[in-house]
Amino acid sequence: MYGSQFVDLAYENNIGYFITDLFFTRPWFSRLLGGLEDSHFSARKIAPFVAQYGIDMNDYEPSQYQSFNQFFIRKFKAGKRNFKPEANVFCAGAEARYYGFENFNAGSKVQVKGIDVTPTELVGNAALGAEFNEGTILIARLCPTDYHRFHFPVSGKLIHQSTVHGQLHSVNPTALRKKPDVFLKNERHVSIIENPVFGKIAMIEVGAIGVGKIIQSCQFPDSSSSLLFEKGSEKGYFLFGGSTVIWLLQKGKISLSSDLRENSIRGLETWIPLGDSLGEHRGS
Questions:
Q1: Which of 106, 35, 101 has the alpha carbon at shortest distance from 255?
Q2: 255 vs 143: CA distance, rounded Å
Q3: d(Cα 28, Cα 65) in Å, to the nearest integer?
Q4: What is the DSSP track for 210-249?
Q5: Sheet of 149-151: strands edge to edge?
Q6: Domain ranges of the chain
Q7: CA angle 186-190-195, nearest 5°?
């Protein structure tokens, strides 16, 4: 696990955690790391990183990376990942390790592997959050070794974007045990999208320690606009660091894939490649 020694030091003892919470989770620290990863000097890390973690570079577009961050946001070659075309299929918008739970309890918290969350707390807005009470949550955890671009899981219309400011704790499992409310404390970007089949969907990109920026490829042309997009089109990307993408769906809109649902109940993540099915529309 990349960065495991730092995470163990930062979260497995009280002194390390105190220093981490006081300094390392602040946005300025991640911006500083991001600046280092943007430097030409950082390109020296790429070859050892690829070798250590067995990354198959044949899957990605060829490029002469000038920094580690350029490598970090590498793109798949055309055809290496394909989104399921059926309108009733909700696809993996990130290549990651997933949890999925079909039901929130209205007005109460749902525990996701020790993490208490409500829709309102995640989106940072009571009116928006109320749309997803008793709905479904999907959590995609990206490691630093992963593809770090995120995509729209369905076609539709982007109708809202906002930022919830906060800290930048690690999303490593070790850190989650120490800081179980990390998804409610970390800085995150919230979007609301509409789809004819699945209704309203909240898509939330969560920053983490070392993530200097969450870049949105899709932006409204002005504050009064909406934006149409196609399933599989790029929504944005994370610069250096582990990260998380969360989707909230309205009540009764999706039946999750059986392996994802069963593994999540058992407390196990399911690795799902970009574009694969996470579940299907339940129908009326």
A1: 101
A2: 26
A3: 25
A4: T---EEES---SSTT--EEE-TT-EEEEE-SS-EEEEEEE
A5: 149-151, 234-238, 214-216
A6: 89-281
A7: 145
d(CA 239, CA 40): 15
Q: What pLDDT, on a 0 to 100 scale, did the predictor assign at position 155?
A: 97
Closest CA to 244 of 115, 129, 138: 138
Residues of the chain with pLDDT under 50: 3, 6-7, 9-11, 17-18, 22-23, 28, 113, 169-171, 176, 179-180, 210
Distance CA 213, CA 83 (A): 26
List strand residue ranges (DSSP E) for the chain, in order: 89-91, 96-101, 110-112, 115-117, 136-142, 149-151, 156-164, 188-195, 199-206, 214-216, 227-229, 234-238, 243-249, 254-256, 270-272, 277-281
Q: Cβ neighbours of residue 41 under 8 Å, at least 6 residues apart? A: none
Task: Identify the pLDDT of residue 56.
Answer: 95
Task: Give the span between the Cα atoms of 49 and 121, in whole angstroms.
Answer: 36
Residues 6+ away with beta carbon under 8 Å from 245: 93, 94, 96, 139, 140, 142, 150, 203, 204, 205, 206
Three-state DSSP class for residue 115: strand
Q: How far apart are CA 14 and CA 257, in angstroms?
A: 40
Instruction: Name the CA dihedral angle for 214, 217, 223, 229, rounded to a multiple of 10 degrees.
Output: -130
Q: What is the largest CA-CA distance in the chain?
A: 56
Q: Indicate the length of the chain as a whole number.
A: 284
The rounded distance, in Å, linking the Cα atoms of 87 and 66 is: 39
Q: How far apart are CA 2 and CA 242, in angstroms?
A: 9
